[in-house]
Predict the structure.
Amino acid sequence: MPNGLRHIVKTSIAFIMFSIPLYSQGKDVGRELKRLNAKIDRVRVLVDSLELDNQILLPELMSAFRQAVKSKAQQDSITLVVLKRLNTLSNKIVNLENQSRYMDSTALEIFNKLVLVENKIVTLTNSYNEMAKLRSGDPISSEPKFNSAQYKKTYMASLGHFQNQNFSSAIAGFEELVSADATNDLADNSQYWLAECFYSQKDFKRAIIEFEKVFTYAGTDKDDDAQLKIGLSYQSIGNVEKAREEFQRLIDYFPGSEYYPKAKEAIKQLSVN
């Protein structure tokens, strides 16, 4: 083979041998490019889809968020109003409770004053009744001091001093009577009115001592009167427990007394406080 031809053949063979790999590589690169383009297309589709979803959902999310914020603000506003109203109601309740306590205290004070006035009326009424009974009896003679007639005369005079609130003279007269003759029919009454003198002067401790002496007279009809005044005396000096005990004793031992309802009411008032 001529050298020129041989060179051409070698060159051709070399070109063919070089071209085969390049062609093979070119085909591989093309396939890879197609595969990458396909992936890119798919990613582009996903991105477009996400953008579309974003365009649709984002305004909805923003709207929902704004509604939530607005709703929370409204709820906070409503909560604040409710709390303010609850606080106002709480203050009104406290004020009502304070007013109630004040009214209870005022009512008790009025009740106690009414009891004192009523007791004075009852006391004076009893004293006048006794004086009327005595005046309707036998005329008083000028027998020696502290015989039956003189005892009655001194008793009526002392009762008159009591009614006129001349307590020092009344006390002197009743003390003289109870020390002169404890067996006289008017001795227990003298003892009772002596105690009433100290009660009217608000010497409640001394009054209690004198009222308790009434029970030493057998057959006295002043026992329930004295029992009531003992309870009232303890109440006046602030000994609530002792007052309640004495009122209860009147209820227990004198169920038929005219003062029974008064003792029940007194215990009720003491229990309130």
